[in-house]
């Protein structure tokens, strides 16, 4: 007989994907303290798509980088998928990122001297996937993102929009619990912005949890929750009542649904 699962043993359904408790970041510049994040409390549930907005310098990037361990916190707690993360060493964070976190940045950050295929496979290999599984996952993601024909290209041979799609494939290579995005469309023209937003919307519909920094209200409208930062504090946090979804791109036909768990 199968034992019923007690609530404490249930898989992470009730556990937030990421949680910050009184998170503080104070940079020191020339001996002077620069408070960037001042006591943020945040809880992101599985499947949520959270947009983070606010004026320049309000602490958006610092907050999201801390949530992924790319910046150290001054004080406070960070929990990722139920695991205490703020006390991890750099290598502990690196392991956690490989297992659970994908990143997409404004400036793609692809490895210039590696092919598109290798850029996407690398995180899966580092995360412990077998070479065969990493290759299959890469073929699958590049196919879904319309980039199969570019697998052997180097990043410099791609357009900005293509590079960002590769960056998204790389971020999803490990089927991360959490996708962190910092201005993922900030460097793209409107058409490539639409493409990347469509992809983000699709992975979200497949259940991907996303936290995304953006300056653009149209981009934020894709999310279902908007956090507004002001001077390093959460000034507003709420559901987006009637998100204005981006219109499908007539040049690209109906959007394809990406199976994240493929
Ligand atoms: N490495 C750093 N050293 C010192 N101060 C920093 C550093 N990074 C950011 N800051 C400061 O921390 C504050 C928050 O910066 P942050 O980049 O997080 O803001 P942001 O909201 O993402 O801004 P933007 O929208 O312009 O990207 C700013 O005052 C900034 O000058």
From TrEMBL:
Keyword match RNA-binding: no
PANTHER family listed in its UniProt record: IMPORT ATP-BINDING PROTEIN
Any one GO cellular component localisation term in the record: membrane protein complex
Domain ABC transporter: 18-256
SMART domains reported in the protein's UniProt record: AAA
Protein name from the UniProt record: Putative ABC transport system ATP-binding protein
Positions of region (Disordered): 238-262
Entry keywords, A to Z: ATP-binding, Nucleotide-binding, Transport
Organism of origin: Sphaerisporangium krabiense
Listed GO MF terms: ATP binding; ATP hydrolysis activity; transmembrane transporter activity
Compositional bias of kind Basic and acidic residues: 246-262
